[in-house]
Specification:
- By secondary structure, this protein is an alpha+beta fold.
- The protein folds into two domains: about 180 residues, no CATH class; about 70 residues, no CATH class.
- The chain is built from six helices and 14 strands.
- Strands 1, 2, 9, 10, 11 and 12 form a six-stranded antiparallel beta sheet that branches. A two-stranded antiparallel ribbon has the order 3-8.
- α1 crosses α4.
- The protein is rod-shaped, with a radius of gyration of 36 Å.
- Bound molecules: zinc ion (4 copies).
Length: about 280
């Protein structure tokens, strides 16, 4: 990480680009898109300093100096909370059908045909006229089977095969593991991971005390106390994971709260996904 004094100089230099941005959030979003569009230029800076640079740029515009920015960096906390939707289990490809929704018909092994049940696949049945004797009552050659004792099976026209009665000749049947959807519900829940910075002393105290009491903490109780002027959303990411703590749908859980000055915020491949951690490790298997 670069020393704050040096960061201020860089921020001052960059600030010309952000003159039209009025809020911390708008500077932040413009900064992120600049990072994406000028990766070579920004590669010389430590990604962990990006948020500080944004705060310093805003501070310079709003107050004409860096004092406000220094205060925010010193007194802010970074938190993550996770939201779950109703029935929000992640779907996996069905192993049984490889995602196709159907499998080879079990009865005909995917051939669509079965051995003719009338003639057992031979195509021939005992001649009904001579009952297989090959001759008629007078001892002459049976005219029906011409002395063979057998005639072509009528059910399969002598071919020995009949359409599979399980798949109707389609060769496949609906996969029962996934009911034909091609996907099955996994043990992992989809969630939204919101990373925020706040410098609201009241909110920080409430979050900290509550987290000491029980963890995870639903922050919906805190919503009335959130001063949006003192909070700044860094990212909202979608992810999935298996949780060992039971989570209720439509609830928000707060998992982390760390001082900004001690938090390594980094920007990953996609600058939109700035986060303090990949997954809420403590609560996942
Ligand atoms: Zn037959
Ligand atoms: Zn016959
Ligand atoms: Zn079949
Ligand atoms: Zn399936």
């Amino acid at each position: 990480m670069i020393m704050n004094e040096k960061l201020k100089k860089i921020s001052s230099k960059l600030s010309n680009r952000y003159k039209d941005s009025k809020s911390l959030t708008s500077i932040y979003h413009k900064f992120l898109s600049d990072v994406q569009n000028n990766q070579e230029y920004f590669s010389r800076y430590d990604t962990r300093d990006y948020v500080k640079m944004v705060i310093y740029i805003y501070s310079l515009f709003e107050t004409g100096g860096f004092e406000w920015g220094d205060g925010i960096i010193k007194n802010s906390w970074v938190g993550n909370y996770f939201e779950f939707g109703e029935g929000d289990y992640a779907e996996d490809e069905c192993d049984n059908c490889n995602g196709n929704g159907s499998i080879d018909c079990d009865l005909c092994d995917g051939n669509g045909e079965l051995e003719c049940s009338t003639c057992s696949g031979s195509g021939q049945v005992t001649c009904p006229a001579c009952d297989g004797d090959a001759e008629d009552e007078e001892g002459d050659e049976c005219s029906e089977c011409r002395g063979n004792g057998e005639v072509n099976c009528e059910d399969c026209d002598g071919g020995g095969r009949e359409t599979c009665n399980n798949c109707g000749g389609d060769s496949s049947e609906t996969c029962t593991d996934c009911n034909g959807n091609g996907t099955v519900e996994s043990d992992e829940l989809n969630y939204h991971n919101t990373t925020f910075i706040t410098w609201d002393k009241n909110l920080i105290n409430r979050l900290r005390n509550s987290m000491e009491l029980n963890n995870p903490t639903g922050i919906e109780d805190f919503t009335p106390f959130v001063d949006e002027e003192k909070m700044f959303i860094l990212s909202i990411e979608q992810d999935r994971g298996e949780f060992r703590t039971e989570v209720s749908p439509d609830k928000i859980y707060c998992f982390t709260l760390n001082p900004l000055s001690e938090t390594d915020l980094f920007i990953r491949r996609n600058p939109e996904s700035l986060t303090t951690m990949d997954k809420p490790h403590d609560y996942m298997y």
